[in-house]
Amino acid sequence: MNHSCLFCSIAKGDVFGKDQPIILVLLDIPPMLPVLDGVVMELQDCALPLLREVIPTDKVEVGFKDLDAAILVGSMPRKEGMERKDLLKANVAIFKTQGAALDKYAKKTVKVTPPPADLSVGIQSVSVSSDTRLNSSTAQSVAMRCGVSSDKVKNVIIWGNHSSTQYPDVHHAKVNVHGSETAAYDAVKDEAWLRGDFISTVQLRGAAVIKARKLSSAMSAAKAICDHMRDIWFGTKEGEFISMGVYAGGNSYGIPEDLIYSFPVQIKNKTWKVFDGLPINDFSRAKMDATAAELVEERDTAMDFLSQ
């Protein structure tokens, strides 16, 4: 994660608007406080008009007090060769602590986005939405196939987990080609690619980035978080939906209700709602169920860790 990119985008107004003053509260472990002091100096030196104050701290009662929005980027990042079970074990304890602090100190209206590494295990709330935007952005590679820019593609869906079982679905996506909206399958004209290499490329993109740079995604992850929180703040466009990992309770797609699962959602007045009623074919059903099964297993593993 490129924290500097994230902080700068927020302080410039790219997330909460160009007229919204910002107070940044930066929470970290005690050994990192000298580093935070350096971050504070850099932010001050940027002379960003919206940035009113930067508060570095190692105390949760300060870090979470009266927050309007919380972006949780303090998890252990995935490294090359790391098993997801190892990642879960390390991060479940972190999120349990942060979830308790949010409940105790933050505003009850706080909007929370944790990183997608464990899809919010231990923080299940209607105020929490996990970021699967990076996967959606990768899925917009459909645009390249059609010879248009990525903003000409809408309603790509990421179903399920942030893992190699995630299902990037373009059955309901639209591509604007020369001013005319076309179904993605009709625009691409290559069903074998859409059901094969396209899906595997999106599913394995994170691992490919780690293999190439020996670290997990940085700039793209920071931008995805900003896009995700901006959509929470300002809502989705009429007739469009985006993908978020949200609490599955009451969903119409047959997904177990006690999971955090990535669905298509629409947002209005800072409140998300799963976009219901999309037809699901047999191909999609199998992919959606497979990623749900993995999430059930990971949820049970996480609960075991929490009980130890």
Automatic annotation (TrEMBL):
Enumerate the catalysed reactions: (S)-2-hydroxyglutarate + NAD(+) = 2-oxoglutarate + NADH + H(+)
Determine if Oxidoreductase is one of this entry's keywords: yes
GO MF entries: L-malate dehydrogenase (NAD+) activity
GO BP term, example: malate metabolic process
Stated EC number for the protein is 1.1.1.37
Where in the numbering of this chain does the Lactate/malate dehydrogenase C-terminal domain appear?
140-305
Where in this chain does the record put each Lactate/malate dehydrogenase N-terminal domain? Answer: 9-118
Q: Which protein family is it in?
A: Belongs to the LDH/MDH superfamily. MDH type 2 family.
Protein role: Catalyzes the reduction of aromatic alpha-keto acids in the presence of NADH. Plays essential roles in the malate-aspartate shuttle and the tricarboxylic acid cycle, important in mitochondrial NADH supply for oxidative phosphorylation. Catalyzes the reduction of 2-oxoglutarate to 2-hydroxyglutarate, leading to elevated reactive oxygen species (ROS).
Name the PANTHER family for this protein.
MALATE DEHYDROGENASE (PTHR23382)
Q: Where is the active site?
A: H162
EC primary class: oxidoreductase
Q: What is this protein called?
A: Malate dehydrogenase, cytoplasmic
Keywords assigned by UniProt, alphabetized: NAD, Oxidoreductase
Q: Look up and give the organism this protein is from.
A: Seriola lalandi dorsalis
Asked whether the keyword Manganese is assigned, the reply is no
Q: Which Pfam families match?
A: Ldh_1_C, Ldh_1_N
Q: Where does NAD(+) bind?
A: D28, N91
